Amino acid sequence: MLIQELGGNAIPSTVHDNVNNQNNDGQTSHELHVFSFESITIATSNFSTENKLGEGGFGPVYKGKLPDGREIAIKRLSKSSGQGLLEFMNEVILIAKLQHTNLIRLLGFCIQEEENMLIYEYMPNKNLDIFLFDPTKKYILNWKTRFNIIEGIAQGLVYLHKYSRLRIVHRDLKASNILLDEEMNPKISDFGLARIFGLKESEENTNKVVGTYGYMSPEYAMNDVVSIKTDVFSFGVLLLEIVSGKKNNSRYHSDHPLNLIEYAWKLWNEGKDLELIDPTILDDSCSLYEVSRCIHVGLLCVQDQATDRPTMLNVVFMLSNETLQLSPPKQPVFFINTFVEEIPISEIKPESCSVNNVTVSVMTPR
Ligand SMILES: Nc1ncnc2c1ncn2[C@@H]1O[C@H](COP(=O)(O)OP(=O)(O)OP(=O)(O)O)[C@@H](O)[C@H]1O
């Protein structure tokens, strides 16, 4: 991996060592820029409010413009995130090694005294959440675009789970973590929360819990068990949200307080699954067969038992191979038993979930 220094920033030698060690593992070599704080300050007009793109659980994100005209996004990690230099460097190395058309690309990093920043390629259409759940913007997402987004996310996850050499579980997959380029192609973001798995390990208990309410699988929400099937569950929720234009952490159905998963399963079981479709996608280009198959695949992904869920590779196969017979999805039990009464979030697992995009996380050193 080639590191280029922009602007003469003072980098601790361990940073160089850590990054350079990655040269030995046979990964594709590419450039990772070290940005000076000065260059970032200029690019963001001194971190002006106009350049602020938003704020996530790890701090604010700013838009910047480099002298050559390139646009960038700067994630300014809050000092209170508990992230030390080592964790930061792990994240940098991890992300920089991941290269796939459906993953956001890390261009470099900046270290200023106690403060760490990640520099990404800029995504002009921001994220999926902004379009999907906005009554005026959702029209921009026709079915063809939505299907392309679904397929892209699935491909990105297959890469993370299977082909990236490291087995990576994202753990916080959700609509706001799907960034969109100028052509509305999806790029999965936020790998700061991902965890590297040893090749032989398939799942583990972890005391570092990060995730978002509505997207967390039962075994993760209740027992902190993480595996690639945790992401499959979140992908299933995302798929149902993309098809329906509805959020999973809301209640649907007038008589019973069903969440999106329960509602989708009920409709599917009654042979009325197409009632789930967001009416805004119903035009001539919309293949109802394709939509129906997506709902079916989504329901297979959100099954309570991790072992019942397909792998992301299977998901890609199911989405692309129309003749493949799909098994019936099992009825969701977990949500009926635990969430049907509006249990206050604080009573479920206050330290490990988020509501309305505010993620609350327990961060302990690795
Ligand atoms: N590379 C990027 N290009 C354009 N916008 C971005 C980029 N990265 C992040 N953003 C935007 O910045 C905002 C904050 O993003 P961030 O990933 O920090 O938080 P989040 O995903 O909204 O929340 P959480 O931290 O809970 O996952 C979001 O609106 C996101 O769309």
TrEMBL record:
Per the UniProt entry, the Enzyme Commission number(s) are 2.7.11.1
- Where in or outside the cell is it found? Cell membrane
Q: What is its main location?
A: membrane
Instruction: State the InterPro entries in the record.
Output: Kinase-like_dom_sf, Prot_kinase_dom, S-locus_recpt_kinase_C, Ser-Thr/Tyr_kinase_cat_dom, Ser/Thr_kinase_AS
Entry keyword annotation includes Cell inner membrane: no
Span of domain Protein kinase = 47-324
* Catalysed reaction, written as an equation: L-threonyl-[protein] + ATP = O-phospho-L-threonyl-[protein] + ADP + H(+); L-seryl-[protein] + ATP = O-phospho-L-seryl-[protein] + ADP + H(+)
The answer to whether UniProt assigns keyword Disulfide bond to this entry is: yes
Where, by residue number, does the polypeptide cross the bilayer? none
**Which protein is depicted?**
non-specific serine/threonine protein kinase
Which species is the source of this protein? Quercus rubra (Northern red oak)
